[in-house]
Please model this.
Amino acid sequence: MRFRPLLAALLLVACDHAGAPQPPPTLAAQLCNWQEFPGNPLIQPPDGETLIGDPTVLAPSETPDGQWHLFANSLAGIHAYDSADGLSWQPLGLTLFGLGAIRPFVLRDGGLYHLFFEQYDSATHSTIQHVTSADLATWSTPTTALEPSLPWEREALATVGNPYVTLRRDGWWLYYSASTVHLDDAGFDEPRYIGVARAATLAGPWQKQPQPISGPNPQVAWRNLGAGSMKLLDDELGGQRIALQNGIYLDAAGHSRSAIAVLASPDGVVWTEVCPAPVLAPHGTGWEAALVYAFDTARTGDTLRLYFNARDGWVDGVERIGLAQLSLPVTATDRNP
Model:
């Protein structure tokens, strides 16, 4: 028996939501009615591959050419796409950073773009890498932002990944996934914990919070196996930070699953659920039949767009990227970090 994973899981169950103020009930009316785009899926895997996933997106107001830009990974590396409307996407013929580069996140700070991504350097070890660009096409040499150094980051595989970076009043925060849980019916691993690190600049150095902020909890149906990943909305509502999290779980029939839930937090560390159930979950027999997971969001007017990937099966499943949308007027939000 592995005592460290068991102890960490028990500690997380004990403190999950302990003492956390409940989000205002009005948040559920604002945040729980996501509608899937009827033209899903939007992006198919590259020729000869079976997956395209972990999308990260920039809206036209953030890009040098006024186009939508999206990055996502296949098994061969990170691919770049652009679009005039954020619905019809064209590959740009760029495969960045090669084999083992997955789970990108892109943001703009001033006139520079920053791409954080997970890089596997062996079958059992990954780091978070950081590159910069002035034009979204030519990127700097990767530097290591984060390595798996804490015991809970190394419980199964020694991994850190799924980066999400946001600016707060006290500096930059990096949310990340760590360690793994193996999905027996799918034959691959998904993230076990979520942690947070802080830095004064995007170049680091990043100081980690010693303990994870989310992990597996047998009492939470949508993440009874693992925490998956987390990304925040730019918008703050009612004094609460808002996040989406795709938990990893076993369903009642014993199948591995992933679904996306909405959370709220007054401090960005202690999170509570906003909606009575995940807002996007596996269903039917189509492209979302097995797992619904990695994602990013962007605003266009009064609409939030959620780009996510889903898998239609387990061992032989195919992963594609689709879109869900939420009406959330800017006037109802506070974008103060």
Q: What stands out?
A: Confidence is low (pLDDT under 50) at residues 1-7.
